[in-house]
């Protein structure tokens, strides 16, 4: 989860509302806070937790005025923090960068793309010198057979 903090000021005879929502990369919109009416002549803090995501998040801050012009709504200092990344995969599996795809650890760096984003082949593979393994090569590729000597 993550936490957002937003300072707001809502004062006047006919203040409307302030709605704070999170829009996630998959299109889901979640209301985080809804404030209505007069809140006093001081800056106030709105704070709420929301799920962390690897798809990104956009904040929507919507202010609606009341019936007349004799009111003020202002916002300042939006911050996001205390995020903990969710691990979607069991510890014995590799978590693809485009979560929630998981692959077995023995499928990492095997020269086959098992993650949709190819992250199992693009990360931490390093150079293979064939000293300790076949580096993912199987079969003879048109040759007879081969072995490490």
Roughly what is the average pLDDT, rounded to an integer? 81
What does the main sheet amount to?
A: 3 strands, antiparallel
Q: In terms of structural class, how would the helical and strand content be classed?
A: mainly beta
Low-confidence stretches: none
Shape: rod-shaped
Secondary-structure element string: EEEEEEEEH
Radius of gyration from the CA trace? 26 Å
The end-to-end distance, rounded to whole angstroms, is 52 Å
Helix content: under 10%
Strand proportion, as a percent range, falls in 35-45%
H/I helix tally: 1
Number of strands: 8
Strand order of the largest sheet: 4-1-6
Overview of the molecule:
The model has no long low-confidence stretch (mean pLDDT 81). The two termini are 52 Å apart. The chain is built from one helix and eight strands; from the N terminus they run ββββββββα. It is rod-shaped, with a radius of gyration of 26 Å. The longest helix has 4 residues, at 119-122. It has 149 residues and is mainly β. The strands form three sheets. A three-stranded antiparallel sheet has the order 4-1-6, with no helix packed on it.
What is the structure about, briefly put?
By secondary structure, this protein is mostly beta strands. The protein contains one helix and eight strands.
């Amino acid at each position: 989860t993550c936490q957002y903090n937003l300072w707001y000021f809502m004062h006047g005879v006919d203040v409307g509302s302030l709605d704070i929502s999170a829009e996630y990369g998959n299109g889901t919109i979640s209301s985080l806070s809804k404030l209505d009416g007069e809140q006093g002549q001081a800056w106030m803090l709105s704070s709420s937790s929301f799920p962390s995501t690897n798809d990104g998040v956009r904040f929507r801050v919507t202010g609606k005025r009341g019936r007349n012009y004799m009111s003020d709504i202002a916002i300042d200092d939006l911050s996001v923090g205390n995020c903990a990344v969710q691990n979607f995969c069991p510890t014995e599996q590799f978590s693809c960068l485009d979560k929630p795809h998981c692959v077995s650890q023995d499928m990492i760096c095997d020269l086959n793309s098992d993650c949709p984003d190819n992250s199992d082949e693009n990360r931490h593979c390093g150079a293979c010198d064939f000293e300790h393994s076949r580096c993912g090569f199987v079969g003879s590729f048109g040759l007879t057979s081969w072995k490490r000597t």
